[in-house]
Design brief:
This protein has 301 residues and is mainly alpha-helical. It has helices at residues 11-30, 35-51, 58-80, 83-103, 172-216, 231-300, and strands spanning 154-158, 161-165. The protein is built from six helices and two strands, in the order H-H-H-H-E-E-H-H. Strands 1-2 form a two-stranded antiparallel sheet.
């Protein structure tokens, strides 16, 4: 088989595999075995064909077909009455029964079954990251009332990712999150760069397919890949999807930065109001201090 053809898309390969599959199953029914052994043997054949259905390596495909034809030769000999082949098949079926009995766990009784409420629930495929314990979400800022002096956050950008720096030193949770965001963005850029190189290779593959079609032709009705999309179509689709993900991230970061800037402006306004209130309270306290001292002196006299 030529290396530029995918085995499962080759008409000759598919016809040969289906013929071998049907021949093996038909010979299973003719082998002198009981129903249980015959079912186990046919199940083994079906499972092996399903196992190698998606294989594309020519070497592995060749070895699998050789093993299939050898098995068909043994089945034919057993049907014809050859004693060695019959013993070989009987031994194989016995090994299958032993392996199946070893793998099947014992059926638990009703008393051994766990309580349905105490059974472990399956883990979800995706778990949203939990916030830092005790931390106030950024979207809930600004807080109108605080216990101490207000610290105005600073809007900072780390590799295009905006965040609010509340205090120093920076929390390890925030540093880890920024690092993960930067790694994710870097992986997207690396993927886009790799796809650009693969696009050039796909164009060469398409040119090679067109050259083969022009030089050798394709017979009408043959099971070929002429109607399939070009090689570069999949690569260009992946490039468009990766670029769309990057653009969506940039748009999300722009909106996030605008929202955080609004929070910073609001925090500054509240800080100025609170600063004015503290100054008024200090002036009021200083104005009342001489009166208190005069009262103390008069009481002492």
């Amino acid at each position: 088989m030529p290396r530029f053809l995918i085995p499962k898309r080759s008409g000759v390969h598919r016809v040969a595999c289906f013929a071998l599959y049907r021949a093996l199953l038909s010979q299973c029914t003719a082998v002198p075995l009981d129903d249980a052994q015959r079912t186990a043997l046919s199940g083994l054949i079906r499972s092996q064909f399903r196992k190698y259905k998606e294989v594309q390596s020519p070497r592995v495909v060749t070895l699998a077909l050789k093993a299939g034809y050898e098995a068909l030769h043994i089945l034919d000999a057993a049907v014809d009455g050859e004693q060695t082949s019959k013993l070989h098949i009987a031994k194989l079926v016995a090994e299958l029964d032993t392996t199946k009995a070893r793998k099947e766990p014992p059926t638990p009784t009703a008393s051994a079954l766990p309580d349905p409420e105490k059974r472990k629930r399956p883990k979800p495929l995706y778990r949203a990251p939990a916030p830092y314990p005790g931390a106030t979400p950024t979207v809930d800022r600004p807080c109108l009332q605080i216990s101490g002096r207000r610290h105005v956050p600073t809007l900072v950008s780390a590799g295009g990712f905006p965040f609010l720096r509340i205090k120093k030193p920076q929390p390890a949770f925030l540093s880890r999150m920024i690092r993960n965001k930067q790694k994710q963005r870097h992986r997207h850029f690396q993927q886009l760069q790799s796809l650009q190189g693969q696009c050039e290779m796909a164009e060469l593959e398409d040119e090679w397919d067109r050259l083969l079609l022009r030089m050798h032709g394709v017979p009408a009705g043959a099971d070929t890949v002429v109607d399939e999309p070009e090689w570069k179509w999949d690569v260009e689709t992946c490039m468009k999807n990766t670029g769309m993900v990057l653009r969506m991230q940039e748009h999300k970061y722009v909106l996030m930065a605008a929202r955080m800037q609004t929070i910073v402006n609001r925090e500054r306004e509240l800080a100025e109001v609170e600063k004015t209130q503290r100054r008024a309270q200090k002036r009021k306290a200083r104005a009342g201090r001489p009166c208190a001292e005069a009262e103390q002196m008069s009481m002492s006299l």
